[in-house]
Specification:
about 290 residues; alpha/beta; Purple Acid Phosphatase, chain A, domain 2; 2 domains; six-stranded mixed beta sheet; about 30% strand
Length: about 290
C-alpha cells in the first residue's frame, strides 16, 4: 500500500515541476516585455501653474526635456516630435545630459539631428549637465543652430503678454565649483517683476542665485532632471540616484518650498543603468497662467 502511494506522488511531482518552470518562464517573459514597452512609451505629464499676475488668458507653455542621453534613447523620436509640436509650446527647456556618448562619435549619436528638428518647433533654451563636457564641439553646434545656452546667464522673453526671465545655472561641479552659488549675468534692473524660471541639472532648492549687484534671486519655478526618476520606481518612489544612491529625496513631478515650485523630469534616456523599471520616459508639459 505504501509503495502505491509513493508511486502516485511521483506521477504528480513531474507535471507540477514542469508547470512551475513553465509558469516562471512565462512570468519572466511578461516582465521583460513590460520593461521593454515601458522604456519606449513616453509619459507626458501636465502641470498647471497659476500666478498672481493674470496678465493674459493664454498660458506660457513649456516643454521640459532632460537626460536624453543620446545615443541611449529608445523612444520613437519621430512620434515625439509630432506630439511635442501638437502641444504648441512657447518654450522648450533642456536641463542637461543631452548625450552620454563614450564610444559612439557624437556625429553618429543622433543629437545633431535632434537639435535640427526641435529648434523648428519652438525656441530652445539649454543648460548643461554632467555628461556634455567631453564633447567641446557640441556647444558650438548648439549655438550655430539657434539653441540658447544659459551658462550662469539669463534672458528675458515676452510670451503672450508676460515677461519670463529664464536663468541657466551651469552644472555645479565643473571647473572645481563645489557650491551651487552663481552670479547671474544679463539680468535687467526690473527682473523681479517678471516670472523667473531657473534651469538647472541637479534638483535642489539649495541654489543660491545672485545678480551682479549681489542681490539674492528667488525663482518662481525650478526645472531640473538628473535623477532619472530613481531609475526603478516602487509605489511611486524612485530607488536609485547616481549621487545619493538609494531613495533620493526628489525623483519626479512637482515639489514646493516657500514660494518656489520645482518640476523634476524623469528624463528620456538611460546612462549607467541601461533600463528603467516602472518608470516611463517623461516629458513634463507646463502651462503657466
Amino acid at each position: 500500500m505504501e509503495t502505491a502511494v509513493k508511486t502516485s506522488r511521483k506521477k504528480y511531482i513531474i507535471p507540477i515541476t514542469a508547470m512551475s518552470i513553465a509558469g516562471g518562464i512565462l512570468i519572466t517573459i511578461l516582465i521583460l516585455f513590460l520593461v521593454y514597452a515601458d522604456n519606449r512609451t513616453l509619459d507626458y505629464e501636465d502641470f498647471i501653474i497659476t500666478t498672481s499676475q493674470n496678465i493674459s488668458d493664454m498660458p506660457v507653455t513649456i516643454i521640459h526635456l532632460s537626460d536624453l542621453h543620446f545615443p541611449s534613447i529608445r523612444v520613437d523620436l519621430e512620434k515625439m516630435y509630432q506630439e511635442i509640436e501638437a502641444k504648441e509650446p512657447d518654450i522648450i527647456a533642456i536641463t542637461g545630459d543631452i548625450i552620454s556618448t563614450r564610444t559612439t562619435p557624437i556625429e553618429e549619436s543622433g543629437v545633431f539631428e535632434f537639435i535640427q528638428r526641435i529648434v523648428q518647433i519652438a525656441p530652445v533654451f539649454y543648460v548643461d549637465g554632467n555628461h556634455e563636457h567631453s564633447n567641446s564641439n557640441l556647444f558650438d553646434y548648439f549655438r550655430q543652430n539657434g539653441v540658447i545656452i544659459l551658462a550662469d546667464e539669463s534672458i528675458t522673453v515676452s510670451v503672450n503678454g508676460r515677461n519670463v526671465t529664464l536663468i541657466g545655472m551651469r552644472y555645479c561641479y565643473i571647473n572645481g565649483r563645489d557650491s551651487r552659488t552663481a552670479v547671474i549675468k544679463g539680468l535687467s534692473e526690473d527682473f523681479e517683476q517678471n516670472y523667473i524660471i531657473l534651469l538647472t541639472h541637479i534638483p535642489t532648492f539649495d541654489n543660491v542665485l545672485r545678480a551682479p549687484c549681489e542681490q539674492e534671486i528667488q525663482p518662481d519655478l525650478i526645472l531640473a532632471g538628473h535623477v532619472h526618476g530613481g531609475q526603478m520606481r516602487i509605489f511611486s518612489r524612485g530607488i536609485f540616484c547616481p549621487d545619493t544612491f538609494l531613495f533620493p529625496q526628489y525623483t519626479s513631478g512637482i515639489y514646493k518650498q516657500g514660494q518656489t515650485k520645482m518640476i523634476l523630469s524623469r528624463g528620456l534616456g538611460n546612462s549607467i543603468l541601461p533600463i528603467r523599471v516602472n518608470n516611463k520616459p517623461h516629458i513634463p508639459v507646463i502651462r503657466i497662467y
